[in-house]
Amino acid sequence: MALAVVRDLRDVWPPATAEELEQFETDALAGFVLARASAGLADGTIRGDVGHLEQMRSWFGRPLWEMEPPDADAYFGKVLRASPSGTRLGRSQALTTYFLFLELRHKVEIHRMTGRVIKCPIDEMNRPRGTKDAALRIPPSGPEVKTLFAGWGGELATCRKFASTARNYTPLS
Q1: CA angle, 101 as apex, 115 and 110 as ends, to 5°?
Q2: Final residue of a structural domain among 114, 133, 155
Q3: pLDDT tens digits for 55-112?
């Protein structure tokens, strides 16, 4: 087996035009929406994430993949400084998810078109505090459940309305 000459393909591809970059940005966002829908997210959740991304894009004025940590610092530290923590957290999570999508699916293409190696601008230093994870729910203990049902059973004798009586009778039966 002989060695072959390796040729750099970047010399063959012309730089992307502004029109091509705009079209690619639209296609990437559409692909993000489709990927999130195929992951089973609700339409409202996807719409919220896209809304966050569009607001950041309009503030930034350039494609989001050009955003660097100092830009994220300026956005979250100045523009959203007075916003509720949930807003800052939602936008940072949407941006982080979008960059993860871009890195997984379009990293090579973005590098070919722009020469940029994309990296999420949200890091350990500028990540907004807070969490939207569901709170831990601990089920009631056995005695608490018995007290609940005993209370419902005791109210059956004094209920005046049919709906309340039916509501209490159903779990007791």
Answers
A1: 15
A2: 114
A3: 999 999 999 999 999 999 999 989 998 988 888 899 999 999 999 999 999 998 998 8
